[in-house]
């Protein structure tokens, strides 16, 4: 039977249209399926059960993105940096990596293990609500992480101890005044002794403070600016107004136990500890009546300089879920994430007047004017500059700090040793 040309053309056209529509239908179905696929995003964390922001952020993000669940890869805080370094060296593909500090961040970035986020975050860099947090993460004009919290050092104090001693609450202190106050607030001996202050063992409390307040550089190889600060801390130790460094080290003393049990009237510590105090009070572990004030300064001129560091999220270059990972970073580091963080007593990197107010509205938070003023220092210098030698320099500075504080070396000899060793490291 002959088939007319018109009929043949009609049949072929119908077949082509049918195939095309079927293809479009298939693609549409596929697209819809991919957009609703269940995605599990893995994120490194530390001490998940006792670090409130992780659970709060993960749950809030999942609520906003029901198809994405987050699996925490939890690591002990004391081993966190070493563990993540080992994971990445082995080609690990955990999607999102939490940057605990800028020292480890710079190491991962220089080794090419983090996704370059520069183009994506450029609009955020100049946003005043981030309070310059992105500046701390810049490496050769590129950005490999997004800050979600920014902590800085303040001086915590026990109001009850000040009241008993009939001493006014501290405000606009110099370092000399801090040492004098600590002496006045020291009471008793032995196991019942109340120290005027507890200066924790971290080198940054001396060195990063000195660097920030003298506008110096911790990776320069020149460290004479540290001497007056070490003299103050050693004087306090010798007078008995602060616990001896060797004792604090050998007994693994914690700043929380010293402050929350009334063993120390003052404590220089980061703003992250505010959430810790709130949690302890909520659990009934302490009844400390507390406040914060600005870190002591060289001069009582009303200007406050302290040091701090951002905590950030980065995307692993080996991640298989980069689009979802980016969505999480944007949520956590933006206004929505900041609101969640403030609700659990964590200082977000993104801050507005509304967010600051919600932070101090939390039950148990000090509401006095001095505490609120301390929350907005004039300058927050970076704890450790982002540099490819940062990790090695940090180790050198820590070793020499230990020697000074236990009396194993004089201040002058240790500073000379720091300079020699750091300059050698930079040359290599």
From TrEMBL:
- Identify the keywords attached in UniProt to this record, alphabetized: Signal, Transport
Major place of residence: other
Q: Where is the signal peptide?
A: 1-22
Question: Entry's InterPro entries?
Answer: Bact_solute-bd_prot1 (IPR050490), SBP (IPR006059)
GO cellular component terms, semicolon-separated: cell envelope
The record's subcellular location field reads: Cell envelope
Which protein family is named in the record?
Belongs to the bacterial solute-binding protein 1 family.
Query: Per its record, how is this protein called by name?
Result: Sugar ABC transporter substrate-binding protein
**What organism does the record attribute this protein to?**
Clostridium estertheticum
Origin organism lineage: Bacteria, Bacillati, Bacillota, Clostridia, Eubacteriales
